[in-house]
Amino acid sequence: MRFAVFIMWLLHWLPLPILARIGEGIGSLLYLLLSRRRHICLTNLRLCFPQMPESERKEITRRHFQVYVRSVLERGILWWSSESRLRKLIHVSYAMPMAEMVSSPTIFMCPHFVSLDVAGVAVMLESSLCSIYTTQRNKSFDKALRKGRSRFRPVKLFSRAEGVKPIIRAMKENLPFFMLPDMDFGAKDAEFVPFFGVPAATLTALPRIAAATHAKVIPVIASIRPGYDGWDVKFDHAWSDYPHADIVSSTRQMNAYIETEILKMPAEYFWTHRRFKTRPEGEASVYRASKGSFQDTQH
Predict the structure, then answer these.
(1) Name one GO molecular function term (predicted).
(2) Engineered SS bond to 19: which of 14, 64, 196, 232, CB 3.0-4.6 Å?
(3) Span 64-85, pLDDT tens digits
(4) Cα-Cα-Cα-Cα dihedral of 233, 183, 22, 30, to 10°?
(5) Residues spanned by the domain of 109
(6) How many structural domains are present in the chain?
């Protein structure tokens, strides 16, 4: 893995259009080779978009592999490029000035689009933050990732096992919380909330933390600009009257917002994650290969 990190460091010197095309080429190859991940991606798309033609779902899957691998290589730019280069490549739009956003408790709600690391850098170019961090198995990659994510401002990273108390303390110190709330971490602290009409184990941490800290929730969406011209990062308007008294309704609002953003760029959402891994009691896994319509075949 040290060698892989070294290669990422070498590649970050390349112009973005060249680096991005390399990533897309590798992604096209992995689409053919990684049948299990391809099956997960197609299964998610079949569940979420049952009326979509299969050919379109396969094209979204192919494109997802391309942009996902591209995003991994582009982390080298985020971790080692100069601040001036990053400011040229990251095109930010604010619903309100950053200083106003972080002047009181704030949660930046950032869904799992492939360019989410770009959103994190966009925050750190202007402000410190706190976030949840999963330690990487490989020490070399873990070190590079941690250093890359905290090189512009001090960052407080907490383990998911520590719970929400350290996050709440950090937010009381006026650190915005950069939150990625839309993955399946099991039934604990989650409710089955519709995601494109499919019950999905969804963490309720966003409304719970917002209620405990009286924080405003500001969605942050990162996307790839056309023409290999960098990335867009949108800081949306803070949600009004959030959270609601009903925690499930509040969590559903989050999923509905993410659905709307996915429809704008479906290939850039993290479909290779088993979003429907945890099922309601009595329901079988949706990811088991079968001979029916959910069989992953290539043509």
Answers:
(1) acyltransferase activity
(2) 14
(3) 999 999 999 999 999 999 999 9
(4) -160
(5) 2-268
(6) 1
